[in-house]
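Dock S-adenosylmethionine; give full complex structure.
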Amino acid sequence: MLQDATQASTGKAEQEIRLAFEKKLSHVQKVRLENKFDETTPSLDFTFIDKFVLGDGVYRSDPDAHEGCELPCKSNMGQNIGCEYPSSCKCLEFAAVIEEELERKDSQLFQKYLQEKAKSGYFADTKGLPKRFPYQRPPKDNPLVPAKLQKFYLESRYPIYECNLNCDCGPVCKSRVVQKGRKVPLTIFKTANRGWGVKCDEDLIKGEFIDTYIGEVITNHEAERRETTGGKDKASYLYSLDKFVDDVADLTHDTCFVVDGQFMGGVTRFINHSCEPNCRQYTVSYNKHDLRVYDLAFFACEDVEAGTELTFDYMDKDEEEEDDVKRKREIAANDPDNKNKRLCDCGAAKCRGYLWV
Ligand SMILES: C[S@@+](CC[C@H](N)C(=O)[O-])C[C@H]1O[C@@H](n2cnc3c(N)ncnc32)[C@H](O)[C@@H]1O
């Protein structure tokens, strides 16, 4: 009898938690909750937000002050797709150069550019050189096909620059995708062995934008404090905005900001890790000069069938750091401290064994 009464009150409490969570979720467009395993619900200690919340000591540039593109960019150019000029669009100032085109057309200029790139990295002076627009727009005969990230950006992790509020190119410009927000419907669902996860209810094409990672933006000092006190899973929620630390003199790993999505964030905070993921996270900036606060955007890195769990690699690094990751993996394989690390249950054939190595 007593057991029956206890079970009934537990069931009622779980139902109330479920209702309270679903109420929170009802403010988020196109997201549902699914649990085919048990009666549990994600923690109510989580608040859905729709943009970064800036913590103490964190600042970002004012969108009104962003430098936008202007003539020759305008909204009603030939194809009515906004920016069209790869050598003169101001928003492409620091975008990736189309190196093969430059080399073919002017080998001397190409050599000069390589020297400048070796010296100044992402902020090389490449004025007037042909640049890559970030997205491939939908085919003319089927505008409903989503824009997708160009192969170069998908494979290289080069920062993506989108047009901003002060650009003359207008709202239909093809360089505006992440800023328009998530379009695809997602489900937060209970997995068999990794807590909650996220799946998409529609097919995704390779290069399609999914959503951004948002949360509280805090100083690195505060992130270190939270990591020390937050238990062994804390690192899974912290993302350093450190893309440009090697390119800017006064920006270091100690002074860059960090996004904490654990208690405040969006749906992407429920995405699990896989050592063979179907999504990747990319840097998206709307202002060439704000190197401290930019978007962390998830794109599908392969075609993904509706209902498949979305995953990304928590240890994903830029290509130039891959050797470093390999070295760390070898060290981790022999590290006695591994017992304190979270074991990976991604199930991939090439699973590395741990979430963090
Ligand atoms: C960013 S959260 C993802 C959402 C989480 N599953 C939840 O239920 O809230 C990261 C945490 O999920 C779990 N997790 C994610 N990927 C995992 C994996 N491949 N293997 C084991 N646990 C995983 C770990 O507990 C990790 O610290």
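Observed: The chain has a mean pLDDT of 89.
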